[in-house]
Amino acid sequence: MEIFEIAEMLGANINYESLLQTFFKDYPDAIWIKDKNLKLLSANSAFYEHFNKSADCCNSSGEMQILQEKRTVTFSIHSKKKNQVLAVTAMPVLNNNSVECILYISKDITEQEELKERFFVNKYQLNALLENIPKIIYMQDLNGQYITGTKHSKAFFNDGFDYFHKIQLDFQSINATRMCEDKSVIENNKLITYDKEIVDTRGIPHWYTIYKAPINDYHNNVIGIVVMAKNIDDEKHLQAQRETFVASLGHDLKNPTLAQIRAVELLLKGEFGSLTKEQEEILGMLLDSCKYMNAMLSSLLATYRNERGVVKLNYEEVSLTDLAEDCISEMIYIAKDKNVNISIEKRCDIPFVYGDKVQIKRVIMNLLSNGIKYAFKDTEIKIKIYNEINLTCFSLENRSPYIPAEKREAIFAQYVSFAEAHKELGIGLGLYTSKKIVNAHAGTIFVESFEDERTVFGFKIPNVKDSICAAKTVSF
Predict the structure, then answer these.
(1) Whose CB among 48, 144, 222, 385 lies 3.0–4.6 Å from 214's, allowing a Cys bridge?
(2) What is the dihedral of CA 257, 262, 263, 265, to 10 degrees?
């Protein structure tokens, strides 16, 4: 029921102008009234902030609809003076069932319209992205139903067809663990990622890296899952080639190393004549180094004979001080070539850690080898062994070229070498291997570099027996 019909029903003698002025007085947005000929009768002050004349605020089709159908109409108009968008509700004022005039009430919706426009722009951009990314990425709801995704992801979701590699995967092989994976993402509200072997319809295995991440609403509730599948057959093939090469190389080095050990042992026994004290000392260090190399090769070959890339860790009480001194003895003559002096500072009550002696020695040897290699000539390498809470720590400081922060982030990555910071040749496995070993011992490895050309590498390992975070194996 219109306001004037209510007034008539109550028997009130209403003055339209007085009523409108009272209504208009405090309303912040534009209000105006037109007669049945669509001429402006009255308006509030806000109206004139938006419009110069009534023609600026007309909506011919809407107004004709009000006059003919005698019903309320809504539309939007643009305020040129204030550059705003107004939502207008236009209501007929009836007298004896005929339209006497039209009352217009507006509301500023500029912000909502801008948000709506940005939403549609973002939607079009997202659609363009989804149409053109050559990846399998899609979103699904909590019931496992497909919502949207990149151009060819629906074929992968529905039929197991990898368009980008032209592989028709066995659909049952894909779905075998899908429900359990989705349940884990939903219940834990966390990303999961894993490598999965999936056979195709011919029974040929293929490898995919799968990423599944929760989609959250405003209250952090999971409302869906985003999934990405990436074929890694080429990476797996390359990895297999590397593993085969390393295993073959390890096997080929085994026999010469054993021959060296036997020859040095014969020399030390005096089989080829007496030795001076200095000769015995050097041969003793050489024998220790050869035995260490033999232990490393045995560990390497055992790794590839059993599970490729996995080494079992044999935990025992290991003295970092003793290991550091052993490594220095083996590397002392290499350091002397550069006139680099090596010192050890022991500041610990507990020099021991619980770990695999061979593997921890690999870490110290890698750090010491790098420390000598990149140290400036005629400088000193300072090794410190110290304690933190439940940790025994090893650090090695040398004088060497500054490593920028962005390269420090990647220096422990596989096939990224310390040498790359200085444009030298390096395979980049030593620091990567060291990080894997330290992490497996529930420890941390670190690097610091200063612009005064001091660099510190080190690691921290628990000295508490049976650390709950320590692993039983390490994977390379």
Answers:
(1) 222
(2) 120
